[in-house]
């Protein structure tokens, strides 16, 4: 098929389920998940901005992490929610391609941010005297900017690999968004080279970030075990727990989805996609707030400050 006609193709997203009875309950469930995700991540960003005690590199990375969670869940959730209540589940070639591009862009940045946060913890625990010098404000901005740039280039390559072939057969995507694996199944031209390039860049991004995280935590564990005080060891491990939980929840389903042979993909793909595209962004704010004393302390201080302002606002009109 000529490239000119590719943009005229319309895909049909089959969604999570074809059962009419299940669609309304699923709509309510995923709408709730999306709202909680938005509120939680916006809350993390706002709390870090208004709390001077959280103006550190670790929380600088965390605000970007929360922002990316908002973005890449928003790429998926609104369209999926609309499809659950609509009979027309068609999506144009251009819209499908842009959905995949933006999702790949934000998901790649998230990989890099998780690696940066692990490196930040490594420097804070293993080289505390040099922390301010190594993880300076300028370095933080350079790391984040480079991750955005590399993610943008990677997303272009991913999109070319997935949508660069010819679509001349069935147009039904057995998924709830335009992801790589279900879209590649519809390509009628040879996809071997595209799949190899795609797999290589996924390996560079996901496995590369995982190696940085693994090496960082090996160094952290060695340093912590050499600490004399049991209290110091417990505090050091506690600061890393939240990040390790976020890493395992993100990389586990992502590896299952993208780093297995195409012949092994099946019904569990949708479950894995729901987890890392919707559930994980919802859980991350709770992980970083409920298991972090600094965040809980800042939240309590902000709550007391708001309560005092509210009391003051009530008292002033009554005196006048």
TrEMBL record:
PROSITE patterns: G_PROTEIN_RECEP_F1_1, G_PROTEIN_RECEP_F1_2. It comes from the Eukaryota. The keyword Cell inner membrane does not apply. Keywords: Cell membrane, G-protein coupled receptor, Glycoprotein, Membrane, Olfaction, Receptor, Sensory transduction, Transducer, Transmembrane, Transmembrane helix. Pfam families: 7tm_4. One of its GO terms (molecular function) is G protein-coupled receptor activity. It is a multi-pass membrane protein. It is found in: Cell membrane. The chain crosses the membrane at residues 26-47, 59-77, 97-119, 139-160, 196-220, 241-259, 271-290. GO terms for cellular component: plasma membrane. InterPro entries: GPCR_Rhodpsn (IPR000276), GPCR_Rhodpsn_7TM (IPR017452), Olfact_rcpt (IPR000725). Odorant receptor. Belongs to the G-protein coupled receptor 1 family. This is Olfactory receptor. It comes from Melopsittacus undulatus (Budgerigar).
